Amino acid sequence: MADRKAGHWRDRFTFADLIIVVILSLAFFVTFYPFFYTLSLAVMPYENYVAQRVHVFPSGFTLKAFAEILETPNLARAFANSILKTALGTTLSVVLTIMAGYVMSRRGLRFGRILMVLFIVPLWFGGGIIAYYLVLRAVGLLNTFWAMVIPGLVGPTSMLLVRAYYHDYPEEVIEAAIVDGASHFRIFWRIIWPTSKPIIATMALLIGTGHWNDYFWPSLVVPTEWQPATVILQRLTLNRSLFQSLGLGVQTVHQSFIAAVASCLILPVLVVYPFLQRYIVKGIMIGSIKG
Predict the structure, then answer these.
(1) Band of residue 26 on the pLDDT scale cut at 50, 70, 90
(2) pTM for the whole thing?
C-alpha cells in the first residue's frame, strides 16, 4: 500500500512541476531576503556591522536601535502622524470608494457615462505638481494635516476595481429591497456593505499600504510637525549620505538605526496582510471573471 502511494505521488510530480517549484523558490528568496536583511541589520550591533563588509546572516543581537527610536521625539511624533494618517485616510477613502464604485456599477445611473469619463481621464492626464500644489493652496489645505488625506480620497483605479466587483451583484436582491420600501442609502448600508467583505478588505490593504508608505506629497505640502515617519526616515538617510559625500567623516545616523526605522514601517504591513489575504484574493478575482 505504501509503495503504491509513493509511486502515485511520483507519477503526479512531473519535471515541469519541479521547474515551477524551483522558479517559485527563487522568486520567494529574491523578494523575502531584502526584508530579512533589513530586520537582521536592525537587531545587529553596529560594531558587528562595521567589523565585516558583507553580512548574509545577522551577527549578534541587540534592541539598541529600537530604543533610540523611542528616545527620539521627532520620530515618535512622525510614527504617530503615520498611524493617524493611515487610520483616518484609509477609513474615509474605503467608505467613499466603495460608495462611488457601487453607484457607478448601477446600469440605470443618470449621466453614468459622463461620470465614468471624468473618472477615467485622470488615469491618462494630470495637471502636474505645480497645479496640484496651487489647488491645495487655493482651497486652504496647504500646510494642514488634511492635505495628506482629502486629495486622494477616491482614486480612479480603486473605484474601477470596486465597480467591477459590483457589476455582477444580484439585481434581484436590490429590487426586493426597493419593493419593501428601502431607500438607496439604506440598501447600501444594510445590504451592500455587510456583504462586501472581500472588496472592503482589498481596498483597505491597498489604500492603507499607500497611506503608510506615502512620502512625496507629505514632504511638500505639510509642515514638519505633521510629516509622517517615511519623510523623517528619508531625511535622516539623506543627511548621512550628504556628510559622507563631503568627506567630513561624520556619521549622523548609523545603518542599524535606519534599518530599525525601516523595520517599523515594514512590520505593520507584514502583520496585517496574512489576516486579509483570503479576502484580497477573492475581492480581486470576483468581477474579473465573466459568465
Answers:
(1) very high
(2) 0.77
Domains by residue range for the chain, with CATH: 2-42 (no CATH), 66-285 (1.10.3720.10)
Stronger pLDDT, 96 or 229, i.e. the higher one: 96
> What does the H/E/C string look like for the chain?
CHHHHHHHHHHHCCHHHHHHHHHHHHHHHHHHHHHHHHHHHHCCCHHHHHHCCCCCCCCCCCCHHHHHHHHCHHHHHHHHHHHHHHHHHHHHHHHHHHHHHHHHCCCCCCCHHHHHHHHHHHHHCCCCHHHHHHHHHHCCCCCCHHHHCHHHCCCHHHHHHHHHHHCCCCHHHHHHHHHCCCCHHHHHHHHHHHHCHHHHHHHHHHHHHHHHHCCCCHHHHCCHHHCCHHHHHHHHHHHHHHHHHCCCCCCCCCHHHHHHHHHHHHHHHHHHHHHHHHHHHHHHHCCCCCC
Q: What is the mean pLDDT of the chain?
A: 81
What is the structure's pLDDT at 112?
81
